[in-house]
C-alpha cells in the first residue's frame, strides 16, 4: 500500500503519519523532515534548501527530485510508503508518476486533510517538537505533561524556525498557488479521500482509519 498525505501547513500531516505508521508497516517519506536533517547536517542539499525554508517558500523541484529518487532507490520502500508533504507542486506530481512507473509502483490513496485557515495559526505557533524522537506536541491542543520536555524521552522540546506568523503567511500562499493543483491532479485519478482535519486528533485518525480499512479489504 502506497499512500500520500496532503494538507496545509499545520493541518496535521506529521501527527497523522505517526498514527498511521503505528498501525501499518510503511516507510515514512517526509520531504520536510529530510530537508531539515540536510540543513542540520550542512549537506549540499541542505545548503540549497535553507534560505527557501526559512522564508516559507517551496524548495525548487530539482532539489526535491534528487532526494526522492535517492530515497526510492532503497529497498525498504518495497514494503509500501507514506509520502508526507510531497508532492507539493503539480510538476512534482507528474515527476513522481514517472519515477514510480519506472519502479512499477503506484499511489493507492491520497489523504487530503481539510481545515480552515484560521485554525492553523495556533497549530503552527503552538507546535513544539522533540529533536530526539520526533514526537509532535502543541502547547494549546496537545501539550507535554511537563512543560518543554518530551513525554516519551525527556529531551527538551524545540520550536521550528519557520513556525512563525510571517512564514505561515508565505507557506499558505504557496499552498494555495502550488499544492491545491496537486489535489486536483489526483482528483482526476479518483484516488483522493477528503478528511475533516479540524476535529480532535483521535477523531481525525478514526476517519482516516476507515478509509484505509476500505483500501485493505
Ligand atoms: P509543514 O509542516 O508546514 O507542512 P514541512 O515540514 O512539510 O512543512 O515543510 C517545511 C518546509 O520544507 C516547506 O515550507 C518548504 O520550504 C520545504 N519543503 C518540504 N517539502 C517540500 C516539497 N515537497 N517541495 C518543496 N519544498 C518542500
Ligand atoms: P503538519 O505536518 O501538517 O504541518 P503537524 O502534524 O505537525 O502538521 O501538526 C501541527 C500542530 O497541530 C502540532 O502542534 C500538532 O500537535 C497539532 N495538531 C495536529 N493535529 C491536531 C488536531 N486534530 N487537533 C489539534 N491540534 C492538532
Ligand atoms: Zn522525545
Overall SS class: alpha/beta
The CATH superfamily label of the largest domain reads P-loop containing nucleotide triphosphate hydrolases
Low-confidence stretches: none
Helix count, DSSP H or I runs of 4 or more residues: 8
CATH topology title of the largest domain: Rossmann fold
Strand numbers in spatial order across the main sheet: 2-3-1-4-7
The Rg value, from CA coordinates, equals: 17 Å
Would you mind describing this structure in some detail?
The chain is of the alpha/beta class. It folds into 2 domains: 2-116 and 167-216, P-loop containing nucleotide triphosphate hydrolases (Rossmann fold, 3-Layer(aba) Sandwich), CATH 3.40.50.300; 127-162, no CATH class. The chain is 48% helix and 14% strand. The strands form 2 sheets. The protein has a 5-stranded parallel beta sheet with strand order 2-3-1-4-7, with helices on both faces. The longest helix has 23 residues, at 165-187. The protein is globular and about 45 Å long. The mean pLDDT is 96. One adenosine-5'-diphosphate binds at residues 9, 13, 31-32, 35, 52-53, 56-59, 64, 85-86, 88, 92, 171.
Task: Give a quick summary of the entry.
The chain is an alpha/beta fold. It has helices at about 15-25, 30-40, 45-55, 60-70, 90-100, 120-125, 165-185, 200-215, and strands spanning about 5, 25-30, 80-85, 110-115, 125-130, 135-140, 190-195. The chain has a 5-stranded parallel sheet, sandwiched between helices. A two-stranded antiparallel ribbon has the order 5-6.
Draw up the topology in text.
Blueprint lengths: L2 E5 L5 H11 L3 E4 H11 L2 H12 L5 H12 L8 E4 L5 H13 L6 E6 L5 H6 L1 E3 L6 E3 L26 H23 L4 E5 L4 H16 L1
Parallel strand pairs: 1-3, 1-4, 2-3, 4-7
Antiparallel strand pairs: 5-6
Helix pairs in contact: 1-8, 2-3, 4-5
The chain binds adenosine-5'-diphosphate (2 copies) and zinc ion (ZN).
One adenosine-5'-diphosphate binds next to helix 1, strand 6 and helix 8.
